TrEMBL record:
Protein name: Pyrroline-5-carboxylate reductase
SUPFAM superfamilies in the record: 6-phosphogluconate dehydrogenase C-terminal domain-like, NAD(P)-binding Rossmann-fold domains
Pyrroline-5-carboxylate reductase dimerisation domain location: 164-261
Location within or outside the cell: Cytoplasm
Reaction catalysed by this enzyme: L-proline + NAD(+) = (S)-1-pyrroline-5-carboxylate + NADH + 2 H(+); L-proline + NADP(+) = (S)-1-pyrroline-5-carboxylate + NADPH + 2 H(+)
EC number: 1.5.1.2
NCBIfam families referenced in this protein's UniProt entry, alphabetically: proC
Keyword Oxidoreductase: yes
Chief localisation class: cytoplasm
Domain of life: Bacteria
Gene assigned in the entry: proC
Pathway field: Amino-acid biosynthesis; L-proline biosynthesis; L-proline from L-glutamate 5-semialdehyde: step 1/1
One GO BP annotation of this record: L-proline biosynthetic process
Residues where NADP(+) binds: 72-75
Length: 273
């Protein structure tokens, strides 16, 4: 797939911004010299400059020379960034993409102009290996704008378009969810140690088992309970273990954690205004 939309500016080139830049180039969506990376300290982008990416600390200049602008700073840095780039934003030219937690399309349009097309994208840290689950949403972007954003993030994983009011929920389920599943894998490996395995073997076994479970659902397009039924036999060891976990609140604690993370995610930007 070849990019026909012009130069892409990634403002705030941290982990997510750099992972997306790498994915776009690796997939041949565009070449490195089609991407401008910004950061306060250019020293931290020296390696990317050697790879052919354009780098600068001037956000306004980066916006002027681009057609797609990706906002990838911390929530508490956003207001300053928007004030810096607002004079350079042209609603006829620019598509704004925000990967900042808890920031609505309206929050951005208030500062940049009501006519500026804004799309929110919420990837997770698996973006670094091209396995992100990214949710996208907008309240004013065109179908073509949404297609452009979906194609960009499909270079680093899977994409689902959702209603914007569900974006904080997506943050909890997909972004925070990485940590939840990692903690479950960690707990499984600790259980493995307790029943006799060395720590490194137990972790490897738990990781591959979790990966296999996820791939079963993805490749069979099936429901977890359908796959669970294949493993559980009457009076067997699997159902005994599952029931013990449920008696101790396994599912309910995970559900409660996701709900609380969603509440917290919705207030990240507002707390820092």
């Amino acid at each position: 797939m070849e990019n026909t939309t012009g130069t892409i500016a990634i403002l705030g080139s941290g982990n997510i911004g750099l992972s997306l830049a790498n994915g776009l180039v690796k997939s041949n969506y565009c070449t490195a010299d089609n991407i401008v990376l910004t950061r306060r300290s250019l020293f931290q982008l020296s390696a990317k400059a050697k790879e052919g990416f354009r780098v600068t600390s001037d956000n306004a200049e980066a916006v002027k020379g681009s057609s797609i602008v990706i906002l990838a700073v911390l929530p508490q840095q956003l207001n300053g960034l928007l004030a810096e780039i607002a004079p350079s934003v042209n609603p006829e030219k620019h598509l704004i993409i925000s990967v900042i937690s808890g920031v609505s399309c309206r929050d951005i349009k208030v500062k940049l102009g009501e006519d500026v097309p804004v799309v929110r994208a919420m990837p997770n840290t698996a973006i670094s290996i091209g396995q992100s689950m990214t949710c996208i949403a907008s309240d004013n972007a065109s179908y073509l704008n949404m297609e452009t954003v979906a194609e960009m993030f499909e270079t680093v994983g899977s994409v689902v378009q959702i209603n914007e009011e569900l974006m904080t929920s997506a943050t909890a389920l997909c972004a925070c969810g990485i940590a939840f599943f990692l903690r479950a894998i960690r707990a499984a490996s600790q259980g493995g140690v307790e029943i006799g395995f060395h720590a490194e073997d137990a972790l490897k076994m738990a990781v591959q088992t979790a990966k296999g479970a996820a791939d079963l659902l993805l490749q069979h397009n099936s429901h977890p309970e359908h796959e669970i039924d294949k493993v559980t036999s009457p009076k067997g060891c699997t159902i005994a273990g599952l029931n013990e976990m449920e008696h101790n609140g396994f599912s309910s604690s995970l559900i409660k954690g996701i709900k609380l993370s969603s509440i917290k995610a919705g207030g990240l930007y507002n707390e820092d205004k």
